[in-house]
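User: Assemble these into one structure.

Assistant: Restating your components, then the assembled model:
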Amino acid sequence: MTDLLEHTAAELLELLNSGQVRAVELVQACLDQIARWDGLVGAFLQVGAEAALAQAAQIDRRRQVGEPVGPLAGLPVAIKDNLCTLNVPTTCASRMLADFRPPYDATVVQRLKQADAILLGRTNMDEFAMGGSTETSAFQKTRNPWDFERIPGGSSGGSAACVAARMTPLSVGTDTGGSIRQPAALCGVVGLKPTYGRVSRYGLVAFASSLDQIGPLARTVEDAALLLEVLAGHDPKDSTSVPRPVPPYSKTVGEKLQGLRIGVVPEHYTEGLDEEVAQAVQEAVRVYRSLGATIREVHLPHSKYAVAAYYIIAPSEASSNLARYDGVHFGYRTPEQAMRAQLEAEEALLRRTGNQTALEELDTPLVRMFRQTRSEGFGAEVKRRIMLGTYALSAGYYEAYYLKALKVRRLIRQDFDQAFQEVDVILGPVTPSPAFRLGEKIDDPLAMYLFDLYTVVTNLAGICGVSIPCGFSRLGLPIGLHLQAPAFEEDRLLRAAAMFQQATDWRRRPPLEKLVARRP
Amino acid sequence: MSDTGLAYEIWIGLEVHVQLLTESKLFCGCSTRFGAPPNTQTCPVCIGMPGVLPVMNRRAVELALRAALALNCQIARLTKWDRKQYYYPDLPKGYQISQYDLPIGLDGHLEIEDPKGRFPRKQIRIQRVHLEEDAGKSMHDEKAGLADSRIDLNRAGTPLLEIVSRPDIRSPEEAKAYLEELKLLMWYLGVSDCNMQEGSLRVDANVNIQISTPDGPVATPIVEVKNMNSFRAVERAMAYEVQRQYEEYLRTGRKKGDPGVHKTTWLWDDGAEITRPMRSKEESSDYRYFPDPDLAPVVFTEEEIESARQALGELPASLRRRLQTDWGLPAYDAEVLVGQGQPFVDYFLQTAQSCGDPKLASNWMQQDVLRLLNERGITIQQYPVSAEELARLLSKVRQGGLTTSRAREVLARMVADGCSMEAAIQALGITEVDESELLALCEQLVRENPKTVAEVRQGKLKAIGALVGQAKKKNPNVDPARVQQSCLKLIQESGQ
């Protein structure tokens, strides 16, 4: 059955439509692959085997009797665990939401259901999408299918790893500062962050509302186009989604762009960039040139402030978005009896010692409940960002941090506007290096944040970007190529990416069996 | 101004929240109806579930614009929504969506006057008018810790308009007049029903006094007074608080701006008729306002603002003036009529126009019509007699065809039977009594009541009332005044 799993989503769709493959077979093959490998990879937090098989059987029946089916009928799709799904645990890989079952579907989930996609399971991620290695998940580590000692990237690490490991042809991730493109690059798959406003955020558990976007991960550009076409579109429930028609991405993706003008950014090639990555990207430039594209230098002078601005804006919004997790209405609440007992003990002690000041400052039970719930429910990285954001929005600091960051954001956007006067897409690296080792940067937040330097600009500028495989390091780790296009030019972005994909052969299968053999 | 010597001036600013008359909440489709069982008018959006997004209720923005225009505010060409962040169990998102630095309306005013003349007509400046969402309602026992707190989120996300005045209010009476005028204005605009019992109007007051001391003027620390549940309560709370601040100043000499002196919050205790300081620690709260990234700013064009201004209609102050200048009504009448709402005034105008006597129409409407509306709890639109019918009745009274008391009976009949004036008159058996008939009746009475006649002759003019009473018994249609007149004349003539 592994052959079946080598097919792209587009090929599988043909096989399903022509009756050569039944959805049940396909889903079973995915489930088998998950059963075989996910114990090691850890991409999934939860797999809905029964429901997926039942849904597949139903789609097979409908196809058999000639009933109309949706555009993704029978294709398994894995969902990042921060997208609300009716009655299905949506945990954001956080203790805080370990038992949260939303009473509603996110718009993208609804669209996938309407398209008859099969919701295969929930993928692991950094807690509340905060992180770049999936290591901040409160529940499990996810390993890179190319090297089990390395991170899959993040925050959509599970969504990238499961596609790379052939557990599903398609998955959905979210990207706030690179969280789709970065893991796609590190796992050797395609990941696209759409323009802000292209895909409805309704039902995406918010991290940073002005930056969050939902997008597809797949093994080919065509497949990403296929999935994006279903995800995209205006939604009256999201005021920031834009009422523009969705072009037929999957129809046009194969059409070559004539006279393509590609921008390269000298600022990208700083000393922080790994040589192998730099070489792979230079090689990609040569490929495009050979395809008839013209290459031009463009400058993004304010990009050097992007990480700083990003790590003000995103935590500021996060500090507000995560305020609702206070133990009152939903999610985790600290065990109350223990909390009260502790508080009473503290009070008794202070009374005995006669410490009046401390006694007056002692938490009320309510405040203690808030405090303790959040201390216990959130992990370290989430707390760090809440504190950063709270600080940045505080009276007296707001102008110096938040407002200043917004100004930088405007300048970055202007840089791109100017650059896109001269070029159609901008090309560069996705990450400064291939996947790093598990644990390597987890205690060094700054190093972790700097890993985002090529991707956060896309979110700050609100434009679209895609990561596609463009080579391997000497250690056999995938390297990603980053293409960015102006707002709502996903069609152009996909076509430019597809041109590269057709001319190269970087879509490879991770050596899962070898990795196991190599393990001590 | 005070019994102990020092003169002072009162400074009151009011923060009023009114609930907008929208069918649905500010950011979702849930109903805003009052009185439903707890937590039955909620959805993932208004309870702030993870993943939800707000969508602005356009009607709420329109109503807020209307109110801001009617309060003579500068309208923001671009207005946006900000998150006000604090933790409280009845605030499910951990922030309230409100407006911070670009409210819909800025720098307006509301004119108030007192028909009783206790203060001259004046303008109270409005600092700002902004739109925000309401929180839920806590019913709790948090401090005692004996029972669980309970939260009702039916109200969460209900659209509120916050109207903040400058501290231009100089007396408790002005405070009450301001609130009454504001309520009337919101009602005329269709912006809010301002029902305090149902929480659709809430008032907080900032109050202090400026005392003239021998060393120059001194301001007392500003106190925010909350928990005032009626306009009367506001008036009384202000009177109490002003006196309390004055006495506290005399006792302590503490003034605004002294080191360690901050604004404090006090609660009005309506039963005890005193204000009490709130127990909570006086922390200066930092709400960490920032623009809500989930909502796009709203841009108003000149045309939109102008067309909203055109659509305001005639507002109470102008209507009152028109009733006085064009229709010659006293200020008191204008106040009462306008206070009943636009349809009531329309009815009055039609009646006055048709019967040609505005004051008569005003009297009848204030007494007979209004009494029935109140008795039955109905509106003027449901009143069974049309303005045209009432005007015909009043015309008949003016021409002397009906006495006031008989006309009342006729109107009562018209209301009861829903019939025309003529039908009512017929049903009551009212006919006009001609002069000879009246004279014959009076002659008979004078003849048959020598004792009464003698009394009248002796100067006891009141005794004539007995004759009038008998006349009405014999013929209910006679005009008592004419009977009296005629009888007197007969007695005088017969005595000569």
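Chain A has a mean pLDDT of 96.
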